[in-house]
Amino acid sequence: MIDETQAGQEYYYYPLENIEDVDIFYEAVERERLTKAVSEERPYTYWTIEIYDQANGIRGGGGLGTLAADTRRVAERMGVPFALITPFYPYESRQEIKDGIVVDEHRPVEYRKFGFKFVDKVNIKCCGQLCSLDVIEKKFKHTRIIAVTEPNFGELYSGVSGSDHRLYQEVALGFGGYAALKLIGLKPAVMQLNEVATFFAALARLDELASNGMDFYEAVVYTRKHTLYTNHTLVQAAEAEFTREQFERYVFPNVKSPAVRKWLSDKFDGDRIKLSSVTIEIAEMRSGVSKLHARVANYRDIAGNKVKFRAVTNGIDMDYWVLPGIMEFMRNAGIIDAKGFPTVNYSDKLELLTADKIREFKRQGRRLLNSTLKKKPDHQGRILKFKDDDLVYDFRRRFADYKRPELAFRDPMRLRNILESHNAHYLMAGRVHSGDQTMQEKLRQILEIVEKDDYLREHVHYLPDYDEKLALALSAGCNAAINVPIVGLEACGTSWMKDVANLGVLISTHDGGVADGPTRAYLNVSGNDESEEINMLYQRMEEAAAIWESDFDLEYTMREQLKEYLPVISGARMLQDYLDFLFPT
Ligand SMILES: *Cc1c(COP(=O)(O)O)cnc(C)c1O
């Protein structure tokens, strides 16, 4: 154990010769503080059932996975010792459109092709058998990805939530991943649980401490103090439950300590257990992913008290998601620093972002979009190519009901008039969950509306098989992004961050991370009911077109958006917020 008082005093040994050294002083304090708590053998550990990281061979399902990949990349850039533990799914799905219906195609993935090395095997117990898992690892300079896998591991989110297979995957990640960490010789400085599917990792730690002689209550306190639960879901009631019988088969056989088994058994509500309830019990630190979300997430602990979440708004790894030309400009202009933080006077420096520059960056983005679209035909099999001065709107996000992909299609004539008067196109992309009948049907209806109108047919396009490449190309190459979740239902969202950072006009409802800023910072869509919101959405689409027609308005809009949102978007800011939460001074 570190003696906190002594550790604190050491900070003052750095000689301060003069006031200019103050930055050096704080940097030294920072380094000291980090190495005290975190080291190569005791990394910051991040547990996630999903990571979206195509460069490393792992394709996720959406925002939860892109956040995990961004967090690791930012830790790497900031030099923070960090281990991400996740399953490696031996199959991944790709989506195609056939007769208006989205169909999944399954492809095997070979981890060795992506630089992962086999480490060894670990065992977990399920249904009276030993299940053997391969531990694989990919090391970077400061960070690593540790994964557990086996040939029958299945796909990400295969089966329904609450099913045996999901529980197996979650137990394999938790107990298998914890055993993998020990096998590699690492101890977690802290455990960040990216949603409750990773609960079993914290349980494995508690069990290790309690079964190795630590007093049970001390073990609980220790585990709680070193665990952060990051919540992305708003309503506890909507979460999956497991039964005692399922736990008897998959969970209890892996728990060695009778006291831990008793503790877990007491957390059942009758015959059922919600992972969020036990995760709240095992993690003293809890965070939500935007200011609004942390405030409205409605969770109760087992005693019935409302749970408080600290807001740590998601950010993105800008060096990954923003056009290199824009990043170079922002660094040279002193808008963001080498690590990716906005500088102290970044808002003044934004004056250097002129309309000429914005239009030049958009041309670069348009080239990336066109070259990406060569390999991604639209729903009718057409290869799209846009001219520099075409106006392009995009709606680009997972097709979930609350995100309202159909909103712009509520008045097809009005949409047609807007597109026609600005010679504009409307692009849609986003995965439809294969089991989601409602959204399959919504997409079919949208495409039917488009098909019926001769102008929309040529100017509205759905791009199947949404992935990272398409996400980046659309952010970089489109002029205006549409983000209209029902207010109160988006936890954060990061797609809009990619759009703002790549100099797109943001049309949005005031929700998720967007609500970290004021409504005047972007083209806000609001209203007392949905028909008012639809009306305002069309007005905002007109305004976005007008902005691109005026140099003055374009400069003003981009500077305002970036002024309010650069600190939100910065992944370095996000990681620093987590570090401040995890290692308070
Ligand atoms: C950024 C990104 C997301 C995040 O989507 P949100 O709906 O904004 O949370 C999902 N999928 C991909 C491929 C992305 O690049």
Secondary-structure blueprint of this entry?
Layout: H1 4-10, H2 22-37, E1 44-48, H3 63-78, E2 82-87, E3 91-98, E4 101-108, E5 117-126, E6 129-139, E7 143-149, H4 164-184, E8 190-194, H5 199-211, H6 216-225, E9 227-231, E10 241-243, H7 244-250, H8 258-265, E11 272-274, H9 275-282, E12 285-288, H10 291-296, E13 310-311, H11 318-321, H12 324-332, H13 346-349, H14 355-373, E14 391-396, H15 412-421, E15 424-429, H16 437-452, H17 454-459, E16 460-463, H18 468-477, E17 480-483, H19 495-501, E18 505-508, E19 523-524, H20 530-549, H21 551-569, H22 571-582
Parallel strand pairs: 1-2, 1-8, 2-7, 8-9, 9-12, 12-13, 14-15, 14-17, 15-16, 17-18, 18-19
Antiparallel strand pairs: 3-4, 5-6, 6-7, 10-11
The structure holds pyridoxal-5'-phosphate (PLP).
**Annotated CATH architecture of the largest domain:** 3-Layer(aba) Sandwich
What order do the strands of the largest sheet run in, or round the barrel if closed?
Answer: 5-6-7-2-1-8-9-12-13
Please name the fourth-level CATH homologous superfamily of the largest domain: Glycogen Phosphorylase B
Q: Return the average pLDDT rounded to an integer.
A: 91
Distance between the termini: 16 Å
Which distinct ligands sit in these coordinates? pyridoxal-5'-phosphate
- State the shape: globular
Number of strands: 19
Secondary structure category: alpha/beta
CATH class of the largest domain: Alpha Beta
CATH fold assignment of the largest domain: Rossmann fold
Brief rundown of the structure:
The chain has two domains: 19-314 and 575-582, Rossmann fold; 318-569, Glycogen Phosphorylase B (Rossmann fold), CATH 3.40.50. It is 42% helix and 18% strand. The strands form four sheets. The chain has a nine-stranded mixed sheet, sandwiched between helices. The chain has a six-stranded parallel sheet with strand order 16-15-14-17-18-19, sandwiched between helices. Strands 3-4 form a two-stranded antiparallel ribbon.
